[in-house]
Design brief:
The chain is an alpha/beta fold. Helix content is 39%, strand content 18%. The chain has an 8-stranded parallel β-barrel, surrounded by 6 helices. The chain has a 3-stranded mixed sheet with strand order 13-15-14, sandwiched between helices. Strand 14, helix 12 and strand 15 form a beta-alpha-beta unit. It binds iron/sulfur cluster.
Length: 441
């Protein structure tokens, strides 16, 4: 629950001295709750009150920023149960699993597959980010060899081993950070020491929510909050249930000891079930999902699902508004006009490519709205198109004075002709009609 103005007011000196620039302490408290001023503006607030306010104003689920070298991934930090209430903030990490019990061929394949788990989708580069390595053998030599190998890839690493001495030596030798996995109430002190020394997140495991809560409280009581809750792989329904309980308890009941990102691994045995299982965890409410499969097709599906969920529902996905070129364009190439809604662009662009007619596509900034929506909302107007044409110096780029607008906004053609002075051709309504249209010019 977010801290209210009254909660803040209770902790202020209540002298109404005005040194903060507000007429009363209550006015200052209200402004602070609305994030319109800063606590430092009150010179008389006590250290105790400061500490309480800082703690109370922390998000209910802590954001863990895992930094390795110049790369950072943020985990957790969520503030709502459902995306439509506001948005989800930090996309859940996706990873592949390796154990030192696997044979060389299997390990080599997973590491090689991992290098292919980067995709371009609706203009964004998306990828699976983690490799989870587990030390199962008593002899750690193979674990060390694999860990060193994957530490030199671009993956963020989760390392599970109870051999803290070995882990410590490698991390220091390679100056790398990992998420340390395997800490329990019986052994967490050694893990915590290394996590504090190396500034690594610590993934803790326990058998029940109560035990998880006790353990995180114990660790955070030692001034260490870089914690991730790792659920033990078990029945899928139970895992979804536990993930939901953790999210609800931390957001709705403000139970801080459960307010940490959550890591889960899949248990399904075949790739299709595993994708379905991982999809459940992405939807509700994992912060990192690790799969046994490293197949490109499986991760492409998961990354796409995640990308769809972790977009802000109030901000349409948009492409950069500018003049795009397709093929070897010349001063005689046709110029099509559209809006910068991502889905519109990615429907139109492949059809222009399919036509094999070298063309320009002028994408107008309509705040990410599609053609008809933007037109209805006055975001796709003749004036806006004219401004975009001028900004891109279109009259210097092509020698003809013709533009093609989407068939759905044929109604714009008269005014657009008046405003721009260019001939306006009405293109097809659907993107699929573009190749035929362009070839017929
Ligand atoms: Fe109240 Fe502090 Fe502002 Fe004075 S400076 S009015 S004590 S909030």
């Amino acid at each position: 629950m977010p801290i209210t103005g009254l909660d803040i007011y209770k902790l202020l000196p209540k002298t109404n001295c005005k040194k903060c620039g507000f007429a009363t302490c209550l006015a200052f408290a209200m402004a602070l709750a609305a994030k319109k001023t800063a606590l430092e503006k009150c010179p008389d607030v006590t250290e105790d009150a400061k500490r309480s306010l800082e703690e109370a104003s922390e998000p209910p689920i802590k954001t863990i920023a895992f930094q390795d070298g110049d790369r950072t991934i943020n985990l957790g930090g969520e503030t709502v149960l459902f995306r439509h209430e506001k948005t989800f903030w930090n996309p859940c990490g996706l990873g592949v699993y390796i154990s030192d019990e696997m044979d060389e061929e299997q390990i080599g394949k997973i590491i090689s597959d991992f290098g292919k788990l980067t995709f371009e989708r609706i203009g964004q580069i998306v990828r699976s980010e983690f490799i989870y390595i587990e030390n199962k053998l008593t002899d750690t030599s193979k674990f060390v060899q694999i860990l060193k190998r994957i530490l030199s890839t671009s993956a963020f690493i989760i390392a599970r081993s109870t051999n803290i001495g070995t882990l410590s030596q490698i991390l220091k030798e390679m100056n790398k950070k990992v998420i340390l996995s395997g800490a329990r109430s019986s052994n967490y002190r050694d893990f915590l020491k290394l996590a504090q020394e190396m500034n690594c997140p610590l993934a803790i495991t326990a058998t029940s929510l109560d035990d998880i809560s006790k353990l995180t409280a114990e660790i955070s009581g030692q001034n260490f909050k870089n914690i991730i809750i790792e659920l033990q792989p078990e029945d899928i329904l139970k895992t979804v249930n536990t993930l939901t309980q953790i999210r609800r308890l931390s957001l709705k009941k403000n139970i801080r000891s459960l307010g940490y990102p959550v890591l889960v691994s899949t248990i399904s045995q075949d790739i299709y079930s595993e994708v379905a299982e991982a999809s459940h965890y992405i939807e509700k409410y994992a912060s990192i999902v690790v799969t046994k499969t490293s197949e490109v097709a499986a991760h492409m599906a998961l990354v796409s699902l995640r990308q769809n969920i972790y977009t802000d529902p109030q901000k349409p996905v948009a492409v950069e508004p500018k003049l795009y070129k397709f093929g070897n364009v010349t001063e005689n190439s046709p110029v099509l006009i559209t809006t910068n809604f991502s889905l519109t662009y990615y429907s139109v662009a492949p059809e222009i490519e399919n036509s094999k007619v070298a063309s320009y596509l002028l994408v107008v900034d309509t705040e990410g709205m599609s053609v008809l929506t933007a037109w209805a909302a006055d975001k796709f107007t003749s004036e806006k198109v004219n401004d975009a044409m001028k900004k891109e110096n279109l009259s210097e780029i092509v020698k003809h004075k013709k533009i093609i607008i989407p068939g759905y906004v044929s109604i714009m053609s008269g005014k657009l002709n008046d405003v721009t002075g260019w001939d306006v051709l009405v293109g097809p309504r659907e993107a699929s009609g573009i190749p035929k249209f362009l070839k017929s010019l």
